[in-house]
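Quick note —
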Amino acid sequence: MPEMMSSFVDSFVDAGFNGASCATAEEAGVIGDLPTVLPATSRLMAIGDLHGDLGKARRAFRLAGITDEQDRWAAGSSVCVQVGDILDRGDAELQILFFMERLQAEARAAGGALHVLNGNHETMNVMGNHRYATTG
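Predicted structure written out below.
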Protein backbone atom coordinates (compact mmCIF):
# COMPACT_ATOMS: atom_id res chain seq x y z
CA MET A 1 0.00 0.00 0.00
CA PRO A 2 1.47 3.41 -0.88
CA GLU A 3 2.92 5.25 2.13
CA MET A 4 0.33 8.06 2.00
CA MET A 5 -2.58 5.59 1.97
CA SER A 6 -1.00 3.53 4.73
CA SER A 7 -0.66 6.65 6.89
CA PHE A 8 -4.30 7.57 6.22
CA VAL A 9 -5.51 4.09 7.12
CA ASP A 10 -3.45 4.06 10.32
CA SER A 11 -4.87 7.46 11.33
CA PHE A 12 -8.42 6.37 10.52
CA VAL A 13 -8.11 3.18 12.55
CA ASP A 14 -6.47 5.01 15.47
CA ALA A 15 -9.30 7.57 15.48
CA GLY A 16 -11.87 4.78 15.58
CA PHE A 17 -10.16 3.09 18.50
CA ASN A 18 -10.02 6.42 20.34
CA GLY A 19 -13.78 6.91 20.18
CA ALA A 20 -14.17 9.07 17.08
CA SER A 21 -17.35 8.34 15.19
CA CYS A 22 -18.35 8.70 11.58
CA ALA A 23 -21.75 9.30 10.06
CA THR A 24 -23.64 6.14 9.19
CA ALA A 25 -24.20 5.38 5.53
CA GLU A 26 -27.83 6.45 5.88
CA GLU A 27 -26.84 9.74 7.54
CA ALA A 28 -24.36 10.41 4.76
CA GLY A 29 -27.00 9.59 2.13
CA VAL A 30 -24.84 6.83 0.67
CA ILE A 31 -27.44 4.08 0.68
CA GLY A 32 -31.15 3.73 0.86
CA ASP A 33 -33.12 0.54 1.15
CA LEU A 34 -31.12 -2.39 -0.12
CA PRO A 35 -32.91 -5.04 -2.19
CA THR A 36 -33.51 -8.44 -0.67
CA VAL A 37 -34.06 -10.17 -4.01
CA LEU A 38 -31.82 -9.60 -7.01
CA PRO A 39 -32.46 -10.49 -10.66
CA ALA A 40 -31.06 -13.70 -12.10
CA THR A 41 -27.70 -13.48 -13.79
CA SER A 42 -26.06 -15.56 -16.50
CA ARG A 43 -22.96 -16.19 -14.37
CA LEU A 44 -22.86 -16.27 -10.58
CA MET A 45 -19.71 -17.01 -8.58
CA ALA A 46 -19.00 -17.22 -4.86
CA ILE A 47 -15.76 -16.58 -3.02
CA GLY A 48 -15.36 -17.98 0.48
CA ASP A 49 -13.54 -16.85 3.61
CA LEU A 50 -10.51 -14.60 3.02
CA HIS A 51 -9.37 -14.16 6.64
CA GLY A 52 -6.93 -11.32 6.12
CA ASP A 53 -4.78 -13.08 3.51
CA LEU A 54 -4.48 -10.71 0.55
CA GLY A 55 -2.32 -13.06 -1.51
CA LYS A 56 -4.80 -15.91 -1.28
CA ALA A 57 -7.70 -13.51 -1.85
CA ARG A 58 -6.11 -12.25 -5.08
CA ARG A 59 -5.46 -15.83 -6.22
CA ALA A 60 -9.04 -16.92 -5.45
CA PHE A 61 -10.52 -14.06 -7.49
CA ARG A 62 -8.13 -14.76 -10.36
CA LEU A 63 -8.78 -18.53 -10.29
CA ALA A 64 -12.53 -17.88 -10.54
CA GLY A 65 -11.95 -15.62 -13.57
CA ILE A 66 -13.19 -12.57 -11.68
CA THR A 67 -9.96 -10.60 -11.98
CA ASP A 68 -7.14 -10.41 -14.50
CA GLU A 69 -3.37 -10.48 -13.93
CA GLN A 70 -3.49 -6.83 -12.75
CA ASP A 71 -6.24 -7.66 -10.20
CA ARG A 72 -8.83 -5.69 -12.19
CA TRP A 73 -12.44 -6.81 -12.71
CA ALA A 74 -12.47 -9.18 -15.69
CA ALA A 75 -15.88 -10.83 -15.23
CA GLY A 76 -17.95 -8.40 -17.31
CA SER A 77 -21.62 -8.52 -16.33
CA SER A 78 -21.17 -11.51 -14.01
CA VAL A 79 -22.13 -11.39 -10.35
CA CYS A 80 -19.81 -12.46 -7.56
CA VAL A 81 -20.76 -12.93 -3.92
CA GLN A 82 -18.01 -12.87 -1.31
CA VAL A 83 -19.52 -14.66 1.68
CA GLY A 84 -17.77 -12.71 4.44
CA ASP A 85 -15.08 -13.62 6.95
CA ILE A 86 -12.65 -11.08 5.54
CA LEU A 87 -11.47 -10.40 9.09
CA ASP A 88 -9.22 -12.29 11.50
CA ARG A 89 -6.27 -14.64 11.23
CA GLY A 90 -4.31 -12.56 8.69
CA ASP A 91 -2.63 -9.17 8.68
CA ALA A 92 -4.05 -7.71 5.44
CA GLU A 93 -7.68 -7.06 6.39
CA LEU A 94 -7.67 -3.36 5.46
CA GLN A 95 -5.92 -4.02 2.17
CA ILE A 96 -8.56 -6.64 1.33
CA LEU A 97 -11.35 -4.19 2.19
CA PHE A 98 -9.83 -1.58 -0.16
CA PHE A 99 -9.32 -4.28 -2.83
CA MET A 100 -12.98 -5.31 -2.56
CA GLU A 101 -14.17 -1.68 -2.67
CA ARG A 102 -12.24 -1.10 -5.90
CA LEU A 103 -13.56 -4.33 -7.43
CA GLN A 104 -17.14 -3.32 -6.56
CA ALA A 105 -16.71 -0.06 -8.48
CA GLU A 106 -15.10 -1.82 -11.45
CA ALA A 107 -17.85 -4.46 -11.49
CA ARG A 108 -20.58 -1.78 -11.53
CA ALA A 109 -18.83 0.03 -14.39
CA ALA A 110 -18.78 -3.24 -16.38
CA GLY A 111 -22.44 -4.03 -15.70
CA GLY A 112 -21.62 -6.70 -13.12
CA ALA A 113 -21.69 -6.77 -9.35
CA LEU A 114 -19.63 -7.82 -6.37
CA HIS A 115 -21.72 -8.35 -3.23
CA VAL A 116 -19.78 -8.62 0.03
CA LEU A 117 -21.59 -10.22 2.95
CA ASN A 118 -20.82 -10.12 6.65
CA GLY A 119 -19.66 -13.44 8.03
CA ASN A 120 -19.49 -14.67 11.59
CA HIS A 121 -16.03 -13.13 12.08
CA GLU A 122 -17.32 -9.65 11.18
CA THR A 123 -20.20 -10.19 13.60
CA MET A 124 -17.84 -11.36 16.37
CA ASN A 125 -15.63 -8.29 15.88
CA VAL A 126 -18.62 -5.94 16.11
CA MET A 127 -19.63 -7.70 19.33
CA GLY A 128 -16.13 -7.15 20.76
CA ASN A 129 -15.09 -10.80 20.47
CA HIS A 130 -11.55 -10.62 19.08
CA ARG A 131 -10.29 -14.07 20.05
CA TYR A 132 -9.42 -14.89 16.42
CA ALA A 133 -7.83 -11.51 15.63
CA THR A 134 -4.12 -11.50 14.96
CA THR A 135 -1.93 -8.93 16.64
CA GLY A 136 -0.37 -7.98 13.27
